[in-house]
Specification:
With 344 residues, the chain is an alpha+beta fold. The protein contains five helices and 19 strands. Strands 1, 2, 3, 4, 5, 6, 7, 12, 13, 16, 17, 18 and 19 form a 13-stranded mixed β-sheet that branches. The protein is globular.
Length: 344
């Protein structure tokens, strides 16, 4: 007979290390512009010494694998008769506290994200290059985290923070999954929806619509960013968005394809609860195996992951989106491939 799995955690807050005594732990992992948040509750008599600004690292162990799931800083410490509450944020929270006023010229969307992170004093991990920008104005109307999320979406990527605390972007693929969970073993409950509204598309118009960033026309606004190939609409099924920072047909098409994918996938949302799965993070592509008939589902990509630890156990709640059957990013109306074909 096999032994039962042993759940565990290791919370380092300031100079203290906690492996017991926590009354509750909640870690919400999101994609930008939302911010990852950690909240822990301790008994009122716990000798907590951590203060705002101290480092905070959390490891979770479900008995099969241990992962560093959060690296950030303490945001607040609240003391009350019912206990102590510590909250922490990571690099996303740090960038959300900065409102930049800077213009980038002749950069890629990825290098602009890195520059914004550097200005906020946070580390950068794997950030996709995205595509070239003639310029990008990061104005104080948005935080650095909101600008970075916008830049990532321009390139068809999700923005997030890795477990080691570094900013990263994830380009969600299609086809095979990165991870698999087994119904009846890891998964406790699952619901997936089929709602209307997923058949709309988004057409993004830049302010120039040229073929290359080096074209002289890239610096000048034009009256027709579609160069005579304007798609039909707007109508009930086609939404138009204007993004002046996108000067090339490639940039506008990629941004439109990403937004169209969001619209197509979110009405097919999936919510599942599993035994603690510390390795899951937003942006992962997940396959669910051994579902009972007639329930079937295609691979989904994770938009948020919420780890919860309580005295009676630990669970991971996932909110995920499913692409339509046979989904092909480059076959989307207004996609990168379609726009380039019409622009040249």
């Amino acid at each position: 007979m096999g032994s039962l799995l042993s759940l565990g955690y290791e919370l380092t807050a300031g100079s203290q290390r906690w492996i017991e005594q926590l009354l509750a732990l909640d870690l919400a992992l999101e994609t930008g512009p939302a911010v990852n948040r950690l909240a822990v509750h301790l008994p009122p008599e716990a000798p907590l010494e951590a203060a705002p600004g101290d480092s905070c690292i959390l490891k979770l162990d479900n008995g099969e694998r241990e992962e560093t799931v959060f690296t950030g800083t303490v945001r607040s410490v609240t003391k009350g008769l019912a206990g102590l509450r510590l909250t922490a944020v990571d690099a996303g929270g740090a960038m959300a506290m900065v409102r930049p006023a800077v213009t980038f010229e002749q950069v890629s969307s990825g290098s602009a994200i890195k520059a914004l992170a550097d200005d906020a004093g946070v580390d950068v991990g794997n950030v996709d290059d995205g595509f070239d920008l003639v310029f990008y104005v990061a104005d104080p109307a948005r935080t650095a985290w909101e600008h970075a999320s916008r830049l990532a979406a321009y390139g068809g990527a999700l923005l997030g923070v890795a477990g080691d605390g570094r900013v990263e972007t994830v380009v969600v693929g299609s086809g095979a999954a990165d991870e698999a969970l087994l119904f009846g073993r890891e998964i406790m409950s699952l619901n997936h929806a089929e709602r209307s509204g997923g058949d709309r598309r988004v057409v993004v118009a830049g302010e120039a619509g040229v073929g290359t960033m080096s074209a002289p026309e890239a610096l000048r606004p034009v009256t027709d960013p579609f160069a005579g190939n304007r798609p039909a609409g707007p109508d009930a099924q086609t939404l138009f968005r204007f993004e002046p920072a996108l000067r090339t047909a490639e940039g506008a098409a990629r941004a439109g394809a990403h937004r169209t994918r969001m619209i197509a996938a979110r009405p097919r949302r999936l919510v599942l609860k599993a035994w603690l799965q510390p390795h899951l993070r937003p942006g992962h592509r997940l396959e669910i195996q051994s579902l009972p008939d007639p329930m079937t589902t295609e691979p989904c990509w994770l938009e948020s992951v919420h780890h919860r630890l309580r005295p009676d156990g630990a669970v991971t709640v996932v909110r995920a989106n499913r692409d339509p059957a046979g989904f092909d990013l480059f076959a989307l109306p207004g996609s990168l491939g379609g726009a380039l074909a019409s622009a040249f």
